[in-house]
Amino acid sequence: MNNKFVVIIPARYASTRLPGKPLKVIGDRTLIQHVCQRAGESAAEDVIVATDDKRIFDHVIESGYKAVITSEQCQSGTDRIAEAANALELGDDVIIVNLQGDEPFMPAEVINQIANSLAENTQAAMSTGCELLNSPDDYINPDIVKVVRDKNDIALYFSRSYIPFCRENLSQNNVYKHLGIYAYTAAYVKQFASLSPCELELTEKLEQLRALWQGDKIIVSEVKQATGIGIDTPEDLELARNNYVQHYSN
Fold this sequence. Notes:
The chain is α/β, with parallel strands linked by helices. The chain is 32% helix and 23% strand. It has one domain: Alpha-Beta Complex (Spore Coat Polysaccharide Biosynthesis Protein SpsA, Chain A).
């Protein structure tokens, strides 16, 4: 598998907790412009936004980036990417990085790392990232997904619960937060999207468990760069706005 890849950014307007999220302004740019810029700083051969909303589509095009319209019926970002891969007629072996449309501070180095990890680990169907978690509050927070890996960095399980269970404290340096960025081939994402959700996925509300349920391997690389805050709520947006100058004031 070669190391060339494209980034597809799923972005929908009708977010439950923050409607119109991709068009919210942080500093001098909209959220989706920030995400596109981060992707454009990576080694990706192309950056495409996949959206179901003409307002987002038009804004992305006017900003100088590429976009495709996908169905309003897509249930997840992965479904949207699978549909976009078909519309773009991507070859089966093309590596796609799924960069979520609410990650304005994701470093280009992390995007490259996730893509390269898949290219270099041919036994894996997907690749994703993690970072060390040391906060007791984050450890028990169900909104922060934890991951446990084997000695080869292959995912054993993802959960909203606290895994592994630490009988004493978090100083063991083996608790990892999962980062919601993925890489897979165009062929795999289309196959994945065609599968029905599994019981574990429905229980945890974690789509990646569908891959583990099917027996597919997910390589999970630890990242060293700070990935910043993802934007899910109005509070997240305000925090990102307050921190914008110290992160990206150029």
